[in-house]
């Protein structure tokens, strides 16, 4: 695997290897790069969490990040993604993280690409760093995936997260359940778990993973008003969850749509913990990918730095 | 004071402590951070001076700055300020500087915030770093505030600067005068000084502090054409100012509206000097705030660096 | 020459001096700055290549780059270029790179500017770093300029590149030819070379330098459809080029308009090589300009760093 573009490419061993490395990073072991390595984060869609989290991860690893804002770039003159990517390669960039609205955008790039690529989200396709940080959060909470019951609920059809998570969780030994409004059911998912009613399943799951309603893509108002009561994680529903169970969400959250506002920062919620974990996981992804390409850390010369607030 | 959000929170001793630290920075003493500290500047309104000045201050102190552009962030997907702020906290940010169009935006944030916040301007509310750099500029010029006469003239009603400066100057022993068009008088200000006519007061003041006409908020044309002659600092008026007196302005300047173009870089003007001072003052604010939180410089290990052009 | 704003200011010796320094950089000699030096890239027009390339060059030299995005700056409040530039000078910036749509924008700035300026492109005027990287690419290929035959073809009238390149190439001993649609002929260019028909000249030139059709400025559709066959470098035309000859383009490329898509990455093309060379050339420009101002590298203390992928 020369690029991290899809969770489909990861087998269980590779997932565990990234999660273990992330755990090392969380325990303060920071192998500083002793070479000058340039990264660029090419985000063709708005993002706060994923982009900033990759940025922090890159800098903690000692990489230098070349800024790129699509609105001020030659994309405005009609430059293609391919030419932009090859430009960054030409000027000396050693790692690319790309988010792009087109599903599978990376398939045309990879044959000509001479530097490693991490997919930061493609249309309704893949989002491997989100999947891995979700897995990390669950493993950290429960120690293992064996027999852990996970409900994935919400917009299953348009979610980059649902498919990757369902497949990986099932592969790692968890039991997956799905719930969504009828129009957002995705038949393909059912190979990794079973569809159920939220009120039936909530009392027995260990994890309620709520997906974001993409309000910016679904503008039919009216629907949204009922959504919370019918399909969302309301305060009442959360009360029926079992002791020790947790709530997850990839964020940004629509408070009082897919999840009741007060639950976001409740003791049961791991939503901000997911973001915190995301930095370690992305450090692990970057570091292990750079090592595959032979441009990573020289362990003998790696230095530890003092980090604040970790 | 765990956050620097409002000049209302500063007593005279705290102001002097920041100004003294800024003076140390101006004299080349740069205590480098020996820890990895991340800052983010979340600017929800356009800014050149304040944003870039904080950026330079942060880097001179050795901090790593995480980029954020509101137009390319999840704010576009409806994410609230609160959730954006908590996201930056979660991914390991150690200091936030925020500018936001909503007055008092910080009041809802502070109860849940676990990292220090500096207010870079809130609506028509506070702008403490601008106030402190104005004070620094006056103290540097006159040695002290006792008996210094300061005219604050222009859009008193919508200015973030007028109120903070009036209160602080009065508290530190200066004598404050106000002048503005009738519709921009702000009664509340009169507790810290007296309203007067610009032509009467200009010959006796030590400082003429001209405020910016916010052309982007006041679109009634016609008014602007007369503004300069009636309310602005014209070349003729400037000639009647006393020897040793100075002209200040928070910038950006509307040349030939609130101030005659040639005055901006005249020997009497401290407008670009204010910007230069702003970097030292912001370094002092950041450093003293980080020290309050226990994440600042370890003085024993602080190293001096050679700075260019200081 | 205190600023690099126009190729008109360069005589042959100065060009060779920058090209030689660039060659040193390409051979891994990286004199690190041992001082804190701040640069800002003020780009008032979209750019990927030039902006990112300057950014990489600055960082490789150890400079700290202050971000600036025109859409989020006080330019939105009507601040002039002059005041923005003087602001960056005031807050401690030591080097400016500016791209601006107004031809000759720099002429009003220079008399008041106390820090070095590199012109990153002005309207239909100059673009010295592009010219120097083109020269570098040709010299690297052919060893010298003496007798090298170069065709410059395309939108001669609006090109920042055509004039600078024609003049410099002619001065350095190359023989220059021009070709363009009738409405884009520029009489002034003919002092440095002769106009000819593309099909006549292609078989004898060493370099075919194709210019970009600025689709964003020329919206008359219909014209573009014929452009490739009539004026562009088609696959058929490329086949008639002589052995050892190369194809150049400043990019971004309009594939199948000024140049056939498959030629962009063909063995004959130096288009991505030009981008790669651009970083070395910009490092050389920055370094030699900083040295002229006495704020550059102290050679005795310069350290070499390991660079990845060079």
Automatic annotation (TrEMBL), chains A, B, C:
Pathway assigned to this chain's UniProt record: Pyrimidine metabolism; UMP biosynthesis via de novo pathway; (S)-dihydroorotate from bicarbonate: step 2/3
Q: What is its EC number?
A: 2.1.3.2
- What GO biological process terms does the UniProt entry carry, in alphabetical order? 'de novo' pyrimidine nucleobase biosynthetic process; 'de novo' UMP biosynthetic process; amino acid metabolic process
Q: Which UniProt keywords apply?
A: Pyrimidine biosynthesis, Transferase
Residue limits of the Aspartate/ornithine carbamoyltransferase Asp/Orn-binding domain?
146-287
Source organism superkingdom: Bacteria
Q: Which GO terms describe its cellular component?
A: cytosol
Q: Which InterPro entries match?
A: Asp/Orn_carbamoyltranf_P-bd, Asp/Orn_carbamoylTrfase, Asp/Orn_carbamoylTrfase_sf, Asp_carbamoyltransf, Asp_carbamoyltransf_Asp/Orn-bd
The Aspartate/ornithine carbamoyltransferase carbamoyl-P binding domain, residue ranges: 2-139
Q: How does it assemble?
A: Heterododecamer (2C3:3R2) of six catalytic PyrB chains organized as two trimers (C3), and six regulatory PyrI chains organized as three dimers (R2).
Name it. Aspartate carbamoyltransferase
| Protein source organism | Bacillus oleivorans
Phylogenetic classification of the source organism: Bacteria, Bacillati, Bacillota, Bacilli, Bacillales
């Amino acid at each position: 695997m020369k690029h991290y573009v899809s969770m489909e490419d990861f087998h269980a061993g590779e997932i565990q290897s990234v999660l273990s490395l992330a755990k090392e990073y969380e325990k303060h072991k920071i192998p500083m790069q002793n070479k000058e390595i340039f990264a660029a984060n090419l985000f063709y869609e708005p993002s706060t969490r994923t982009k900033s989290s990759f940025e922090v991860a890159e800098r903690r690893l000692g990489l230098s990040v070349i800024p790129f804002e699509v609105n001020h770039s030659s994309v405005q003159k009609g430059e293609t993604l391919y030419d932009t990517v090859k430009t960054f390669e030409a000027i000396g960039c050693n790692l690319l993280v790309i988010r792009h609205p087109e599903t599978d955008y990376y398939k045309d790039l990879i044959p000509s690409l001479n530097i490693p690529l991490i997919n930061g989200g493609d249309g309704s396709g893949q989002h491997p760093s989100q999947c891995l940080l979700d897995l990390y959060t669950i493993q950290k909470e429960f120690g293992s995936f064996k027999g852990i019951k996970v409900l994935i609920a919400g917009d299953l059809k348009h979610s980059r997260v649902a498919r990757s998570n369902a497949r990986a969780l099932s592969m790692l030994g968890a039991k997956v359940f799905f719930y969504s409004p009828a129009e957002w059911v995705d038949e393909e998912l059912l190979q990794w778990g079973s569809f159920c009613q939220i009120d039936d399943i909530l009392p027995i799951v260990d994890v309620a993973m709520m997906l974001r309603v993409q309000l910016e893509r679904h503008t039919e108002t009216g629907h949204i008003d009922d959504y919370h009561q019918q399909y969302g994680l309301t305060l009442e529903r959360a009360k029926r969850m079992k002791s020790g169970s947790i709530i997850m969400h990839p964020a940004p959250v629509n408070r009082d749509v897919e999840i009741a506002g007060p639950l976001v920062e409740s003791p049961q919620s791991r939503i901000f913990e997911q973001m915190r974990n995301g930095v370690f996981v992305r450090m692990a992804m970057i570091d292990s990918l750079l090592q595959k390409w032979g441009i990573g850390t020289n362990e003998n010369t790696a230095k530890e730095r003092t980090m604040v607030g970790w």
